[in-house]
């Protein structure tokens, strides 16, 4: 092979690899409650933001994600809004700091495995939402692919809340179905168990649409027992992946 042909072959290979990388669509951890096993590639930055409306609150949340290696990412979480059941309406919750590490990419019937850690910073919250203790959480996220278009994301882990001395156990299971290359839906069960409280058994479902490989919109509806009673909620959001 001549030098010219070798150069052309190497150039074509590079362009094909670049095109393949650029065409990888955005992958988000919203709008369901389950954390996925996917981690952002190194040096990629992504924003996932949404609105949540219940019969007692209206809030805006955002997650800022950055890949620091091919299997590790760090995240920053914010949430603020108005809670009509509290004396002071506006709340800014503690900022959350999180990391995800892909442990196993999966093979056959063995699921993909990723660990997810969270810590919330009390000093970053507004006074009416500032906890005395530092909440932390540790989750194991798994994903089982039943076919090209059907998968199950499920989480199990522990939460150490700021307002409860008891350990809280968390479980989620989200069934995802790809309707097309651009659209998908999910239905999910998520629960929280603590010795001092009645279990919270919640459900939600939603729809996601890929406008292009960098931009996704979503909508979801569900029912939660967070406030010791039925509390329906609705959410909508938009997510964007920066860079090629």
What would you note in describing this structure?
- With 244 residues, this protein is mainly beta.
- The chain has one domain (26-242): monomeric porin ompg (Porin, Beta Barrel).
- Helix content is 8%, strand content 55%.
- It is built from one helix and 13 strands; from the N terminus they run αβββββββββββββ.
- A twelve-stranded antiparallel barrel has the order 1-2-3-5-6-7-8-9-10-11-12-13.
- A hairpin with a 2-residue loop joins strand 11 (200-212) and strand 12 (215-224).
- It is globular and about 45 Å long.
- The two termini are 32 Å apart.
- The model is unreliable at 10-22 (pLDDT under 50).
Query: What profile does the largest beta sheet have?
Result: 12 strands, antiparallel, barrel
Q: Proportion of β residues? A: over 45%
Classified in CATH, the superfamily is monomeric porin ompg
Mean pLDDT: 88
**Number of distinct beta strands:** 13
Strand order of the largest sheet: 1-2-3-5-6-7-8-9-10-11-12-13
What is the N-to-C succession of helices and strands? HEEEEEEEEEEEEE
Distance between the termini: 32 Å
Structural class: mainly beta
Overall number of domains: 1
User: How many whole angstroms does the radius of gyration measure?
Assistant: 20 Å
> What best-fitting shape do the alpha-carbon axes yield?
globular
Low-confidence stretches: 10-22
Name the helicity range: under 10%
CATH class: Mainly Beta
**CATH topology label:** Porin
The helix count comes to: 1
